[in-house]
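Title: [Solved] H(+)-exporting P2-type ATPase PMA1 3D structure

Original question kept below for reference.
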Amino acid sequence: MTGDGVNDAPALKKANVGIAVHGCTDAARSAADIVLLAPGLSTIVDGITTSRAIFQRMRSYALYRITSTVHFLMFFFCITLIEDWQMSAILLILIALLNDAATLVIAVDNAKISQKPDKWRLGQLITLSLVLGTLLTAASFAHYYIAKDVFHFDSEKIATVMYLHISSCPHFVIFSTRLSGYFWENIPSITFIIAVLGTQVFAMLISIYGLLTPKIGWGWGVTIICISLGYFVFLDFVKVQLFRYWSFELTAKLWPSKTRRTKLQDRKAYAINHARIVGNISKVRKVVIMSRVLLAFKKKSSTKAIEV
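Solution (posted by the thread starter after getting help):
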């Protein structure tokens, strides 16, 4: 409901979304949910577009943050219990700082605007975060044991390898969590790209030249970055497939609740009723077609009889 006068105030108050247009009275302004500060109704479209972009950025941040947290906690908790190995505090602080620097630029990202109204799908969000976090943890264990058992690195050099891996592999995932499709379907902003890649260059230089930790050289540094890029493409494919085959029924099974079960039953009943209606319409259509065919044959037979 849109309005600008005193007589519109009751309707604006009762409407689901009351919009007071530019130059409205104080009564309409106080009763409305949204007040337009520019003339015309095109501002409503701008408001919807901006709000959907904000929602996409919030969703991207939540998915990336939960994924990186699951990966970080799961790996360090398990590796501490299994191998009694720890990373130095300075490297952990650097990982946290670079992680925060990468997530801050989500606010200026080129978000993809949804064509339909958005809503939080927490079951889908948590499940996808757990899947991506678990796969990242598996990659971290692979890096650790390859450096330890295959190349026989000491504990400090392993810390350098793991620092570069943890600073690069999860950070590249932020390009995937931006949207539900493949990462190349929407190009991020220049500021976003520079900030994320800048953190990778900083972490790689520290690891290669050993500024705060034993150096591993260009060979290992470039190899770890390339592996992180390849693994990022694999995780993006997993994300797309999960989004593609996800359904509300799967959400209700994985994260059951009374509300979801009731909603699922209502959807199934609606689907059955809709299928029945479609089937009845199809039967009626077939009967009508057959009636027309029989009528045409009958008319043709009558014409031949008259000619004879």
